[in-house]
Amino acid sequence: MAKAVRLYETGGPEVLRYEDIEVGDPGAGEVRIRHVAVGLNFADTYFRNGTYPVPMPNGMGVEAAGIVIAVGEGVTNVAEGDRVTYTGFINTLGAYSTERLIPAAPLIKLPETISFETAAAMTMRGLTASYLMRRIYPFQKGDSILLHAAAGGVGLIVSQWAKRLGLTVIGTVSTDAKAEIAQAHGCDYTINYSHEDVASRVREMTDGVGVNVVFDSVGKNTFMSSLDSLKRRGLMVCLGTASGTIPPFDPQILAMKGSLYMTRPALADYIADPIEKSALIKELFDQVGSGNIRIDINQHYALEDAVLAHRDLESRKLTGSSIFVI
């Protein structure tokens, strides 16, 4: 009997239910996949707490890696026995499971150089890092970035990639231990926001100029300090809302702080086009497969421990990437 973590109502981690499920045979355009490893992402909490509304009941998780064990009618992009990974949004919800049915379209074939565990830890984070580094801004050697949550899964990948592009990386962290991790992965400077003023420290580190780009996955608590860290005509990239959604603001503030630009990107819009998705995947797999970028999996959980995993996730105690091992 297959197992899955299911959601029947929104709320805290305690609403997650680990239970038996019937999987069945794949229909047209579907495959049945046996998971080997499943990704744990902060975005998962948004489905659980209702920030991202979905019909109930529903599955949890949007990222996993495993083996195709059955193929439905009309599927041509993968075959039985293929090693695959996937990430997405509503169309991939249900990854917290030992086996499942899933549309074949989001599946990505895994090269032998990438393990299932690495794939589950990096497909969403890595593709996010890929578009941030290669699509969202025309980075030049010597440019600078401010990277919030620098010791997190996306942060560690972005830091390494940024250094390969010759960028100066300033990362924010909450503890000295996380500062050491961030520095070991490419951060030139770290700011402990628990006791340091981020914008003031950025100005000190950049001789008063500010950074070209801010990558802010925290949201409400860091929004203004992020704007104050940018150079004239810099770009504010709002990646997430870990501390809460950004309250409404007058766009005039962007002019007052230096004719700033602002974007709120979503991975789905950077992998919607198959050609662009393939290009981003190739860049990511090449970087990781060659060893240029390493993926640190610092937390491993059993699927039945999803409640604990979500509590740890929301406590900000995790570093690097986290996965469920099946």
Q: Which key phrases capture this entry?
A:
326 residues; alpha/beta; Quinone Oxidoreductase, Chain A, domain 1; 2 domains; seven-stranded mixed β-sheet; ER; ADH-like_N; NADP
What do these coordinates show?
Residues 11-324 form the Enoyl reductase (ER) domain. This is Quinone oxidoreductase. It comes from Amphritea atlantica. Pfam families: ADH_N, ADH_zinc_N. Keywords: NADP, Oxidoreductase. The chain has 326 residues and is an alpha/beta fold. It folds into two domains: 2-124 and 269-325, Quinone Oxidoreductase, Chain A, domain 1, CATH 3.90.180; 137-264, NAD(P)-binding Rossmann-like Domain (Rossmann fold). It is built from ten helices and 16 strands. It has helices at residues 43-49, 116-134, 153-164, 176-184, 198-205, 223-227, 252-256, 267-270, 274-289, 306-314, and strands at residues 2-7, 16-21, 30-40, 58-59, 63-71, 83-87, 99-103, 108-109, 144-147, 168-173, 189-192, 211-216, 230-238, 261-263, 297-301, 321-325. The strands form three sheets. Strands 3, 5, 6, 7, 8, 15 and 16 form a seven-stranded mixed beta sheet that branches. Helix 2 crosses helix 3 and helix 2 crosses helix 9. The protein is globular and about 60 Å long. The chain starts with a strand and ends with a strand. The model has no long low-confidence stretch (mean pLDDT 95).
Please give a quick description of this structure.
It comes from Amphritea atlantica. With 326 residues, this protein is α/β, with parallel strands linked by helices.
Helix run count: 10
First-last Cα distance: 14 Å
In terms of DSSP E residues, the strand content is 25-35%
CATH topology of the largest domain: Quinone Oxidoreductase, Chain A, domain 1
> What is the level-2 CATH architecture name of the largest domain?
Alpha-Beta Complex
Helix content: 25-40%
Main pleated-sheet profile: 7 strands, mixed
Radius of gyration, rounded?
A: 20 Å
Please write the CATH class name of the largest domain.
Alpha Beta
- How many domains? The number is 2
- By secondary-structure content and strand pairing, the structural class works out as alpha/beta
